[in-house]
Amino acid sequence: MSLQNPVFIPGPTNMPEHLRRACDLPTIDHRSAGFPILLASARSGVQSIIKSRDAEVFIFPSTGTGGWETALANTLVPGDTVLAVRNGMFSHKWIKMCRDLGLNVVMTEVAWGEGFPADWAEEQLAADTAHEIKAVLVTHNETATGVTSNVADVRKALDAASHPALLLVDGVSSIACMEFRFDDWGVDVAVTGSQKGFMLPAGLGIVAFSRKAMKETEQGGLPRGYFNLQDMATATAAGGYPYTPSYGMLNGLNEACGMLLEEGLENVFARHNRIASGGRAAVRAWALEVCAARPELYSDTVTAIRVPEGFDANRIVSHAETAYGMSFGAGLGDVAGKVFRIGHLGSLTDAMTLSGIATVEMVMVDLGLDITFGSGVAAAQAAYQVGKTEKFLEAAE
Amino acid sequence: MSLQNPVFIPGPTNMPEHLRRACDLPTIDHRSAGFPILLASARSGVQSIIKSRDAEVFIFPSTGTGGWETALANTLVPGDTVLAVRNGMFSHKWIKMCRDLGLNVVMTEVAWGEGFPADWAEEQLAADTAHEIKAVLVTHNETATGVTSNVADVRKALDAASHPALLLVDGVSSIACMEFRFDDWGVDVAVTGSQKGFMLPAGLGIVAFSRKAMKETEQGGLPRGYFNLQDMATATAAGGYPYTPSYGMLNGLNEACGMLLEEGLENVFARHNRIASGGRAAVRAWALEVCAARPELYSDTVTAIRVPEGFDANRIVSHAETAYGMSFGAGLGDVAGKVFRIGHLGSLTDAMTLSGIATVEMVMVDLGLDITFGSGVAAAQAAYQVGKTEKFLEAAE
Amino acid sequence: MSLQNPVFIPGPTNMPEHLRRACDLPTIDHRSAGFPILLASARSGVQSIIKSRDAEVFIFPSTGTGGWETALANTLVPGDTVLAVRNGMFSHKWIKMCRDLGLNVVMTEVAWGEGFPADWAEEQLAADTAHEIKAVLVTHNETATGVTSNVADVRKALDAASHPALLLVDGVSSIACMEFRFDDWGVDVAVTGSQKGFMLPAGLGIVAFSRKAMKETEQGGLPRGYFNLQDMATATAAGGYPYTPSYGMLNGLNEACGMLLEEGLENVFARHNRIASGGRAAVRAWALEVCAARPELYSDTVTAIRVPEGFDANRIVSHAETAYGMSFGAGLGDVAGKVFRIGHLGSLTDAMTLSGIATVEMVMVDLGLDITFGSGVAAAQAAYQVGKTEKFLEAAE
Amino acid sequence: MSLQNPVFIPGPTNMPEHLRRACDLPTIDHRSAGFPILLASARSGVQSIIKSRDAEVFIFPSTGTGGWETALANTLVPGDTVLAVRNGMFSHKWIKMCRDLGLNVVMTEVAWGEGFPADWAEEQLAADTAHEIKAVLVTHNETATGVTSNVADVRKALDAASHPALLLVDGVSSIACMEFRFDDWGVDVAVTGSQKGFMLPAGLGIVAFSRKAMKETEQGGLPRGYFNLQDMATATAAGGYPYTPSYGMLNGLNEACGMLLEEGLENVFARHNRIASGGRAAVRAWALEVCAARPELYSDTVTAIRVPEGFDANRIVSHAETAYGMSFGAGLGDVAGKVFRIGHLGSLTDAMTLSGIATVEMVMVDLGLDITFGSGVAAAQAAYQVGKTEKFLEAAE
After folding, report:
1. What is the pLDDT of residues C1-24, one digit of tens each?
2. Nearest Cα to Cα of residue A17 among C251, B59, D344, B179
3. Contacts of residue B384 in chain C, CB cutoff 8 Å?
4. Burial class (CB within 10 angstroms; exposed 0-12, middle 13-18, buried 19+) of C310
5. Residue of B nearest to D25 (CA)
6. Which residues lie closer than 8 Å to B291 by C-beta, 6 or more apart?
7. Are D324 and A350 in contact (CB under 8 A)?
8. What subunits touch chain A, counting only 3 or more CB pairs under 8 A?
9. Which residues face A205 on adjacent strands?
10. What CA–CA distance (Å, rounded) separates C374 from C372?
């Protein structure tokens, strides 16, 4: 591992200097006057980033996984039924958690590389006239396969079936990188973490609850302690925490929201799309295939790349680390050994991305794959080149 | 708030430069080769600090409160009975969590300022011939009152009653500051966090499980997801995590253990005792009283100081912050307004402590209390003065 | 040495978190677009702090000593005569430099503890009808003795004698801490460094030249390379440097100016005065004497304290370091062993200062001096106590 | 400017995390016990890096330019003659300094792209039977042209002429990157700075003096103050400084030496050579030419690249900064507008270098030069590829 090279794992992402410093504070009393102001600002920042006017945002010292539990434990009661789809390692794990917590899961399996089948969901919801299904779980961006599902379509399915189930969305590897419209999509709980689009270390589980979801937290819930949203909501309303918060991480989150909003969300999303496009162009130039089944499923935060049949994709990841000090993501679960992943989210420049693509080329050549040096780089350069953009033409005037 | 003054809250504590840096790492792939080595080292460091040969240590991205839940959710099943004592805000909260998680609590209330009554526990355990009581909960150091209970006595009570209940100990504000003998005291689960004796930011819930407690995790447990110890144990054994760890915080913990062990645990404990003694001497010089009922209950990490009848102790805390930019702890729960607290744990020098004592004197004089400038400082100086110690005499030779 | 205790040397001073970070930048191209903006801002900031409208400020990668050389080498030619006073180690060293550089020095010696005798200067200047004296050198604040001289009086002496000599002022340990009126006092060159009032590490020699002094740089000068002001002025005008600047240090200087101006210069000066007053009150309480001969000479940045006859003051400095991990200043030159010094400049709070005073008390008691614990602290507390100030009374309303 | 992209200016270089932290220390008393130890260690580290057993190393708060002055001002007297060659901007500036300081320069001009002509020097020295020439000045690596001269050949010329002149070598952009044999080459003064091979911010001028050169410092010298080596040597011998040192920068230098020696000097040099070779391969692939006239002059720290006749090379530098946030070096002096420069020294990985090469390709294509995307990258990848190296073959076994 080199501490100088960028990382290309799909989170934790590369961190801007500014955010590392925002997190690294001297000890400040979390009961002093500045804390409630910081907390309110961070919560409001997250709200803006998920494009919500009045979602209630809560921030737990944990991870996105803690956010999953918070979503479930505060809106459902033991034995409740949820609707879910397994299309990658992270959807798989959320389903496992549902079962561990005593929920009943109605699910379907789709190929890893496919997205959430909204039509299937619509059928299930329409058939559920007794409204047994209390929640629909969607993994917005399946980090294991580089597949982005269409949340708006799931909302349409719910509406088409006039079904009152809550819409719980895992946005861990999408929020703050890609369009996420909490209000417009009628999301009830969105879950994310600090270490992806927010460009921070791992350590925060971030959830946003709709009014409808907040109402559910008042009635029952699963047995819960640390992730008890009512305790958290009460403390938050008083500008505090039910236990000791990480002042630094909250400060980091607040600054991250500020950076993202200052860049402009649409610019942030466009940047992720441009960088991802370059990566996909490289994959095409290598005559390889991405794991995502169709262009509309392509993720702008992570690309899973299928290697030739019979070749162990993990060799790429380990050779890159050992020989070039660069980290990429391995395949997980059903696609272990079949894909490797390039994380291209968070704080990343075109130049940094090119160093990742160039390094992967050396790795693949080293390992005997039929790759031409510079081929993927050239394809990405064409995508990143400023010379053809209006920006350049203007500047040249 | 001044960022230059030390803090005197009972956690998060002042952080040494070295540990802030250990936490503030650039992004490192937690699946790269260095991580398992770091994790093993941090776990082993914690083991040494709690003086255990083979406790299994696990580190969650959460806080000590998450550690409480981990202790309960993995060793008990719904409806199990636990024995507990309420003698301050933190013991109170742990009891509340037990109830929220569906456990049955047999408890007693003692005055806030008293410790855990081992004789009462022994009676209860002896009477429980059916062994309904599955666990005894002890708050080693009640941070709200500055009271340290005697864990060894509780172990004796269990042994005297030949009772198989697990001994669960909250060591959040004692571990790494005061003597804690996991093995000798027969502790089954010890709980702590990163932001006290380990001198780190909040963000880690640290637990240590005895073999007996580990065995309990295999059979049932409460419904649990994030704090599922079996998932954590499996991942830990493979050198990884069930979700994304905070590499920086783990590195910080590892370095903290290294610092403490290099200083020498007995030296660390002696330093805490010396600093605390100075603080208590100041209290006597002010003709005030500490909250802890008797000398053997005095905490070496936090001192709660009773203010004169009719005076609101919170004014001291808020005036110190507003006028002098220094943070102290307020009274909580039953002693709110009746005490203020000086946290003197973690990374603190005699000189820093004197600045706290001198500042409190100015605060009290400002607020009209009958305090003589320099009186508490002089008492503490006499406790800190090197001139009377062997160290000085040796150096002078 | 403890890294946690404040330092009480008369520079480098304690550094605010914010400034440490401002200095610690990643590599930024000093020929990129941001550099000229930063440089202009830092120069303008220094101008404001010395209360000048149009002094030309230049910043050399060196120290205040380099600033001395810059002042001399660019305004004088070999064999020129300067007028100077020796009243401490730093005035002594500047005089030595004059001689090493081939200048003729007309000087007087006064007791270490005395200030610059403006009346003597006036006599010399009046007698110098041939205007052989080309420059008068004043050490505004003699760091070795804690003596502040009156620069305005020296200007009056020059004016009274209608003498055209340049007024060169060493403001290393005064600027940014005490009133310094470049324009009003008719200063021609002011010299300072980064590590005192600017609260930065050592590494910058900062000079400000009046128009008259700038004119002198055009004709001759001493042989000079690195400190050639014309090269520096040409490069500065183009937004650059004649060699590689320290981007981080310049950024630190710029931020330091921002901090000082935001606090308000009069507030900064008042803070230094208040903190210094507390220190002097402590000295009186100990029945010791300061080195400065009279109250109007008392320095607000450093206090040199005389120890009883026959006692070696260096023992205080070394025992403080060894036994308590705290740094104070030793006596230098003529007062070596006779005084120790408390630096109380830069970024310092009342609470930090009290820790220094309390520690010195322990040191002196350890070493057998007749000092009562808490006596100096109590005197300082009375000076620092907010309770008697308007600020407190207002807040209390 | 992006703070995330590496810089490709020929210094200051990219800084490893470890060294940034080493420089960014809290205030430590430079008169406390640790300082002499640190200073001795840093001096010894520099000695090892220049492969000298007993050169006296001194470290000034300044830059390499201050080192030039130190070399001249302490070994020569006014009117002395030095022999020098002008083959780029930095040799040009050193010559200018000689003249400004009152020295007589015997020089020759060679094409910018040529090295130091040892045969010409030998002729001059042989002809100088009166030994008027007191020093020969060699710019080991001319940063403006990417030309490395052969110092050993200059030593041979001196020896062939049996001439006693001192050999003064500017190693600013070579030392710690390329072979530098102080003892074997009979160097008398070597000059360098902190911001190149030592991977630190600018701010230190570092000089090494042979015994012979030390002897010269005792007799006369130019008028000098700040750079007076006798004052520095006296203070250094006592473990201190004649003025306030930058503790952090010295600590950084010490750690940098440690890092370099741990990597192994031969490995450091080989790394620089490998990275430089890749850059030169890219230049060939682009059908461009380097400024250095012949392969034996190629610099391993900086490559100056000639652009096609009629094209302004500065456009590359400014477009790279504006459009891609990446910094390269512009042409200076005689080659301004004719070359641009890639600095590839200090802390740099192959992957980082590839990002620079790929970015320059986009820049050149944007500006209409006839460059094929990926062509230079592919050439560099072939140079960097681990797959053909023994290291890979071993690892593969």
Report:
1. 578 999 999 999 999 999 999 999
2. C251
3. 362
4. exposed
5. B17
6. B112, B113, B145, B146, B147, B304, B305, B306, B335, B339
7. yes
8. B, C, D
9. A60, A193
10. 6
